[in-house]
């Protein structure tokens, strides 16, 4: 009976929700965009062109690993996932037993390290669990746990991970192919402590304290000779030879008295600053240790001598007479240091995180270009020392107040040289969790638009607000901007096969405003095939010609035309229109005079790199406080409201401002009548617009339909305006003001009372006005405490109150072939659906994934999708007209998602030692040798070796001769394989020996021929002179 009475009061005869049953309301989570928790580490694979992102556990979600590919390709792995088969833990040892393990597991879990190894991903978390993830199947292949891991070293072409322990200083090996420590029990003790034992008396208390303080801080394999491992300890560094099973050299940095060192502190005494990082030169010619005092020490790894010592600011800081700082300085501790190189590994540079003074004005990464490395054999010691003074030094800037937590280089093609060969970009992770991308070495910012997955743009930088428009599919397919831009950073993977959503020919287009005043626009999809996955970008700061104090507070986009309006905190509104940039390729922006309250042409402020797309059109300087709401119609009108209480309507055909007035003047009659009823002790609250909508309908008392603009306020008023032709333009007239409770208006939805469709101001609806067509319409107004359905402008209509919770978002949604219903999101993280016009509750469901502090920022689309924030930088998209499966299809992304690995992409050959080094006596260790030295003779061949052997046999089978006979004799055993490898290497050595012998013989023969020629010439000269004397 209550529903029947509400229908009569609303003036709507038809049941617009008759075809919607209670079982149809059930939210399904389609997809999530963004990063659920704070990012803790990054890793890039240039072969497969994938980016791995690790996060930390927080109140918003567990620690995860996300692997991103091209466009929308992503797979997510939860650290709590069980391995696909049991794993073997390292054998018990004092190095693996720690009294603090229980406390560690009570700490928040986070990903500390990520690295790609072939088609595997290696991760280390804060609970010291080393895990191996199979990227092809998307499962955890193996895991093991250590005690206080300091660092992990891997190589893209090897099956081994080297784990350095912080408490004991030991180095353990882990077999990535077998998913367990090697059966041989291979591990390295603390070589630094062993050295101290040999040089110091045993049993002293000072020695015991020193031993307990020595741990591993850094590990890195030689870039060309995998038989050499550089181990950085807290007190020094060593180079260990796997083949010799011994330390080749020790490196300890000592600052003499009087030398400034890296920070200039404590000059009066000798110092031994601790090591924080140790890295190889790309060719292994030199090595570098970075120390806690800011010193960068370059070493000769052959004889262990110091070549040069410098800091980020000064050179020769280890010399008493060297250049000194005026006073001691506090420096930022060193983080990651990469020794980069170009395609020529001898042309190098250093990319340094840290080492700058804490009071440095422009912080960032330091790029120290060293240039081509001098030839070691022919260069003097002074030349080598001067080389490390560098050719130039550049700071890759970060935002003011930000601090670098880590970075990840993006090499052009090679995964070797520690991922630092020919880098084209760097992804910088800040301590806030934000990511910025810059070019290397210039440091120019790179926009993530169409370069990275949209989820990464949510932290690049953080998002301030979102809005959603429902755009016709045909229109969206044409909205592809043309911009001068390099190739995407991520190009790997293949999307899962999906079909386009049937029954609805519209797309939900999200507008995302970021902290740097950029707005990115893209199709979120319905977990279906996204035909146009490209993003559109606009730069509000450039349109304003002001790059400081620019913050977007309101967004609106027309569904059919794609026109965009963005309001700012300082009271400006920038309007964009799709078109061509007449100033493409050049910066034609020019200063414009202020025009408060008026419109200014800003078409000259288009981005030079943008050829076709959303171009700046006009600027409206409202200047009445922060813009609270904007609405853009499909028929050329823009409405703007500000927190200062002003409201304006703009006609884009002029363009011109056709109406502007303070809301106080519009609702003063209502306020006066309230005042006469009695005195209110509540303080006066400024009234301002909170919701605006355009529509075409017949207002109460009119005999015709017109374009209407409906404005809701924070105090529950709804003002209705008629927009009518007036000569060559239009004018706006106030039709009336209705009171809908006393709380903030959340949503206004014009509705066709006959069929339930939206009574939107579309081109077709406005064209029908010329023919005298009328639209019997009504308004569905939702405030924080009630729903009201009435005929504008002042009819009372029907209402229903929310008695238990405040409503944060609402929208009238359409269910194709079934009807129309109102969907709302409440502060208790529930969503509810109500029938129209009876306002009966169809159903309600909990949304536990939403962040309770941000339900007020939820957005509901016309198609029934709820966009809700699950954390500071992640949005969940839920379809309320689903099956009620909770996570629904989104949960399948971890199990049946996109394909990451392209098996046709293989690793390039690993760099190895040169022929000259080999001839000079350097012992080359191949991956096969390393497998034997670490894994032992009983280790079965790895999958990589089996595949390589199969490929070799396949190639040999097509050749013939003895190799074919050997292949046809049966499959080669493990022992036979090594025997053949040894014989082939010995045979190659004999070939080289024979070649050298032939070279010697040829050289000797050439020398003899030269001597004979010289003697003949001398004889001819002598005989010629004798003959001449007789003539």
TrEMBL record:
Residues 79-95 have a biased composition (Low complexity). WD repeats lie at residues 268-309. GO terms for molecular function: GTPase activator activity; myosin II binding; syntaxin binding. GO terms for cellular component: cytoplasm; plasma membrane. CDD domains: R-SNARE_STXBP5_6. GO terms for biological process: exocytosis; Golgi to plasma membrane transport. Residues 550-943 form the Lethal giant larvae (Lgl)-like C-terminal domain. PROSITE patterns: WD_REPEATS_2. Residues 79-100, 587-607 are annotated as: Disordered. Keywords: Exocytosis, WD repeat. InterPro entries: Lgl_C_dom, WD40/YVTN_repeat-like_dom_sf, WD40_repeat_dom_sf, WD40_rpt. PANTHER family: LETHAL 2 GIANT LARVAE PROTEIN (PTHR10241), TOMOSYN, ISOFORM C (PTHR10241:SF25). Belongs to the WD repeat L(2)GL family. This is Lethal giant larvae (Lgl)-like C-terminal domain-containing protein. It comes from Parathielavia hyrcaniae.
């Amino acid at each position: 009976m209550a529903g029947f009475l509400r229908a009569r009061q609303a003036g709507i005869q038809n049941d617009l929700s008759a075809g919607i049953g209670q079982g149809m309301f059930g939210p399904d989570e389609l997809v999530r965009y963004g990063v659920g928790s704070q990012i803790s580490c990054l890793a890039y694979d240039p072969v497969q062109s994938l980016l791995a992102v690790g996060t930390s556990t927080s109140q918003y979600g567990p620690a995860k690993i996300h692997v991103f590919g091209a466009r929308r390709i992503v797979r997510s792995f939860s650290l709590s996932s069980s391995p696909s088969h049991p794993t073997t833990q390292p054998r018990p040892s004092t190095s693996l037993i720690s009294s603090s393990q229980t406390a560690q597991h009570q700490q928040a879990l986070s990903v500390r390290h990520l690295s790609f190894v072939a088609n595997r991903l290696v991760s280390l978390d804060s609970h010291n669990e080393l895990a191996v993830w199979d990227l092809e199947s998307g499962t955890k292949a193996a895991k093991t746990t250590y005690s206080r891991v300091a660092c992990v070293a891997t190589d893209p072409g090897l099956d081994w991970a080297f784990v350095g322990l912080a408490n004991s200083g030991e180095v353990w090996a882990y077999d990535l192919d077998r998913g367990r420590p090697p059966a041989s029990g291979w591990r390295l003790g603390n070589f630094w402590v062993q050295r101290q034992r040999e040089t110091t008396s045993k049993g002293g208390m000072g020695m015991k304290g020193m031993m307990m303080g020595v741990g591993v801080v850094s590990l890195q394999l030689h870039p060309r000779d995998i038989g050499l491992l550089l181990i950085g300890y807290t007190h020094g560094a060593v180079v260990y030879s796997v083949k010799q099973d011994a330390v080749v050299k020790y490196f300890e940095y000592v600052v003499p008295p009087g030398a400034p060192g890296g920070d200039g502190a404590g000059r009066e005494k000798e110092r031994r600053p601790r090591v924080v990082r140790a890295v190889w030169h790309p060719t292994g010619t030199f090595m570098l240790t970075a120390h806690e005092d800011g010193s960068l020490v370059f070493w000769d790894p052959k004889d262990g001598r110091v070549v040069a010592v410098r800091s980020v600011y000064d050179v020769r800081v280890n010399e008493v007479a060297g250049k000194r700082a005026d006073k001691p300085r506090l420096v930022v501790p060193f983080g990651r240091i990469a020794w980069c190189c170009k395609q020529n590994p001898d042309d190098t540079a250093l990319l340094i995180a840290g080492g700058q003074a804490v009071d440095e004005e422009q912080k960032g990464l330091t790029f120290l270009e060293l240039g081509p490395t001098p030839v070691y054999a022919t260069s003097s010691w002074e030349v080598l020392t001067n080389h490390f003074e560098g050719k130039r030094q550049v700071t890759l800037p970060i935002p003011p107040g930000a601090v670098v937590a880590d970075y990840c280089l993006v090499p052009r093609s090679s995964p070797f040289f520690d991922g630092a060969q020919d880098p084209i970009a760097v992804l910088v992770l800040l301590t806030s969790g934000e990511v910025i991308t810059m070019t290397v070495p210039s440091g120019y910012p790179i926009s993530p638009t169409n370069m990275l997955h949209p989820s990464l743009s949510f932290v690049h930088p953080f998002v301030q607000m979102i809005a959603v428009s429902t755009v016709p599919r045909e229109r969206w397919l044409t909205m592809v901007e043309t911009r001068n831009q390099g190739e995407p950073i991520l190009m790997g993977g293949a999307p899962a096969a999906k079909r386009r959503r049937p029954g609805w020919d519209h797309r939900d287009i999200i507008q995302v405003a970021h902290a740097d005043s950029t707005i990115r626009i893209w199709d979120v999809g319905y977990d279906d095939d996204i035909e146009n996955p490209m993003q559109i970008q606009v730069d509000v700061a450039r349109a304003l010609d002001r790059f400081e104090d620019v913050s977007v507070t309101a967004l609106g986009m027309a569904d059919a035309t794609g026109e965009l309006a963005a309001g700012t905190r300082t009271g400006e509104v920038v309007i964009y229109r799709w078109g061509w940039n007449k100033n493409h390729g050049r910066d034609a922006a020019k200063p414009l005079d202020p025009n408060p309250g008026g419109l200014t042409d800003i078409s000259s402020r288009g981005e030079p790199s943008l050829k076709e797309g959303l171009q700046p059109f006009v600027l409206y300087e409202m200047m009445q406080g922060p813009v609270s709401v904007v609405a853009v119609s499909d028929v050329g009108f823009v409405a703007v409201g500000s927190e200062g209480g002003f409201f304006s309507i703009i006609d884009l055909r002029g363009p011109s401002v056709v109406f502007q007035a303070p809301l106080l003047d519009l609702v003063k009659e209502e306020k006066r009548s309230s005042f006469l009823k009695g005195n209110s002790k509540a303080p006066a609250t400024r009234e301002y617009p909170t919701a605006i909508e355009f529509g075409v309908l017949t207002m109460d008392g009119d005999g015709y339909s017109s374009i209407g603009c409906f404005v809701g306020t924070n105090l529950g008023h709804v003002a209705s305006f008629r927009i009518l032709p007036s000569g060559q333009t239009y004018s706006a007239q106030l039709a009336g003001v209705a009171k809908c409770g006393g709380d903030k208006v959340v949503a206004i939805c014009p509705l066709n009372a006959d069929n339930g469709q939206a009574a939107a101001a579309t081109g077709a609806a406005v064209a029908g006005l010329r023919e005298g067509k009328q639209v019997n319409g009504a308004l569905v107004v939702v405030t924080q405490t009630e729903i009201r359905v009435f005929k504008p402008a002042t009819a009372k209509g029907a209402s229903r109150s929310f008695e238990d919770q405040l409503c944060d978002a609402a929208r009238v949604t359409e269910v194709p072939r079934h009807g129309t219903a109102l969907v709302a999101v409440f502060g208790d993280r529930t969503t509810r659906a109500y029938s129209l016009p009876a306002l009966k509750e169809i159903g309600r469901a909990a949304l536990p994934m939403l962040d309770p502090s941000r339900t007020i920022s939820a957005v509901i689309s016309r198609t029934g999708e709820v966009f809700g924030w699950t954390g500071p930088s992640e949005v969940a998209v839920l379809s309320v007209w689903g099956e009620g499966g909770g996570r629904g299809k989104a949960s399948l992304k971890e199990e049946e998602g996109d394909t990451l690995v392209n098996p046709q992409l293989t690793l390039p050959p690993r760099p190895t030692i040169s022929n000259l080094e080999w001839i000079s006596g350097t012992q080359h260790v191949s991956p096969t040798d390393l497998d034997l030295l670490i894994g032992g003779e009983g280790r079965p061949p790895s999958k990589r070796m089996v595949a390589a052997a199969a490929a070799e046999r396949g190639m040999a089978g097509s050749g013939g001769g003895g190799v074919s006979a050997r292949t046809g004799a049966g499959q080669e055993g493990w022992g036979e394989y090594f025997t053949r490898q040894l014989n082939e290497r010995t045979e190659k050595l004999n070939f080289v020996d024979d070649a050298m012998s032939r070279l010697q013989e040829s050289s000797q023969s050439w020398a003899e021929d030269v001597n004979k020629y010289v003697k003949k010439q001398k004889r001819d000269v002598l005989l010629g002179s004798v003959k001449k004397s007789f003539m």
